Amino acid sequence: MRCRFCSKTIDTTLIDLGHTAVSNAFLKADDLNKAETTYPLKVLVCDNCFLVQVDEFQKNNEIFTEDYVYFSSVSEGWLNHSKAYVEKVTSRFDLNKNSLVTEIASNDGYLLQYFKEKNIPCLGIEPTNSTAQLSIAKGIENVIEFFGEDLAIRLKKEGKQSDLILGNNVLAHVPGLNDFVRGLKILLKPSGVMTFEFPHLIKLIEKKEFDTIYHEHFSYFSFYFICNLFKFHGFEVFDVEQLETHGGSLRVYIKHKENEQQCVEENVTILLNEELQKGINKINFYTGFQEKAIDIKNKFLLYILSEKQKGKQIIAFGAAAKGNTFLNYCGLKNDTIKCVIDDTPYKQNKFLPQSHIPVVSREYFNNNKPNIIVILPWNFKNEIINKLSFTKDWGCQLVTYIPELEIN
Hints:
Layout: E1 12-20, E2 39-45, E3 52-54, H1 60-63, H2 76-92, E4 101-104, H3 112-117, E5 122-125, H4 129-137, E6 141-143, H5 149-157, E7 162-168, H6 177-187, E8 188-199, H7 201-206, E9 219-220, H8 223-232, E10 235-243, E11 249-256, H9 266-278, H10 289-309, E12 314-317, H11 321-330, E13 340-341, E14 359-360, E15 372-375, H12 381-387, E16 397-400, E17 406-407
Parallel strand pairs: 4-5, 4-7, 5-6, 7-8, 12-13, 12-15, 13-14, 15-16
Antiparallel strand pairs: 1-2, 2-3, 3-9, 8-11, 10-11, 16-17
């Protein structure tokens, strides 16, 4: 394939997870006897610009459809994170009733609702109708489209250039990075700022978070690459924060290169130097990741299959996309893991792709006391362990597997 940023032909493999179904392509009962389409899940590294990326086997408009089942508001921890962000940027950038805040991939209004509470005008750009309608029900204006240069031109003509543009965990979902950033250049006011949050590639590799790889994610970002991407399009990164979310994320602050109102913070140079010292721009940095994934897989299978042989009842919690990557890489089905409990109504009474494990509500606990619960969204481990503390009454084990097998 050709690099989606610099167009160079690339063939260096970071990891190959085999052929898998699309992680959020949940199945209805009627679908179980139909053929499922699987795609290669191989991650490549460009040895020119060092963008880590998956080939685009399924178009994003085929992934983010009416049946898309991820709703950001389900996680209380994520809502708290979003509210704290709103408080921080409102104060830092003096946002008020005369400002316009635009969120790209605004989902169900999980974040913009807090700007609305402050009477700060806001706009959501969200391609999936199912999530956008929930945002609209909260009184938030939405454009139900994918973002890119064409939409940015139209919004600018409508007088909707923004004082703040934000995107949380959206960059990884963008196949056309250059078109996307060109759109940002058009939509951001000359004095405006942008923030983007995304899982940090360094953490993904160091913490062995291979299950965060799935077909919805077209790219994985280092700070080094992000600085180069935005610089190429006439922007400048002026601050960066390291976050604990999603196993280790970055929040980058970006301005037009010609905007002198924001000074470049020391954090930018410090983190960039740290990455360069680790060899982020050397191909050797990316070797050995496959072997780490194999080791995690083998240790988990040895544990889970031995417990199954003892007659233990094993279920999972959290029908997360990362969980589907992991289960399918391990080759596990519903004969080993009986079901997965999830609080999202839109996922309940459906089945995980490829493994066909049924998704149920917490009512499952009314008549069942499983011996082992595998926590699939390990990035919310503490929140979930707290939710499931009552299962300790019957000695249930709560299990995570990234970065190492851990039994609570």
